Amino acid sequence: MGFLAFSQNTNHHKTKKTNNVATVVHKNPKDLFDPAPFAFSHATTNEVDGKYIFISGQSGGEGLEHHLSKDFRTQVKFSLKNLETVLADYRLGVNDVLKITVLMVDHDQEKLKIWTEEMHKVWKNNKFPASTLIPVPRLALDDMMIEVDAVAFIKK
């Protein structure tokens, strides 16, 4: 007869206190590698009543004209800035994000390094959302190098 064992390595942290912010729980099982240096958590959830916000993929387009720089780092910065803009419209911040999905054109280790560095600049507390990176051959628009979608949580 076998049994199942679950790690209790749970990092509880309360996000910045506002009227709409939930308690986000980050789980990084001790039997798995520490994902923080790579700018993600193995899993996240919330512990209060509320609703999920599903945010469409945000590109690295700049301004209302959606200018796409030829520089990958610039597109990464603007994809995260655009994500923060959508979150702010709900009076939320990056610490309310439970899950992100990153679509990256022509993924390589240098691009992953840039992504990780920029994530650390935005998630200053190192309490990262769960994350999936998917290498893709191209995205919706010519010259688009990255797209980031997210699931956030807003407290009732």
UniProtKB/TrEMBL annotation:
Sorted alphabetically, the Gene Ontology cellular component annotations on this record are: cytosol
Which molecular function term from Gene Ontology is one that the record holds? deaminase activity
SUPFAM superfamilies from the xrefs? YjgF-like
**InterPro entries, A to Z:** RutC-like_sf, YjgF/YER057c/UK114
- Note the superkingdom of the native organism: Bacteria
Q: Which PANTHER family match?
A: 2-IMINOBUTANOATE/2-IMINOPROPANOATE DEAMINASE RIDA, PROTEIN HMF1-RELATED
Similarity comment text for this entry: Belongs to the RutC family.
Record-given protein name: RidA family protein
What is the native source organism of this protein? Chryseobacterium elymi
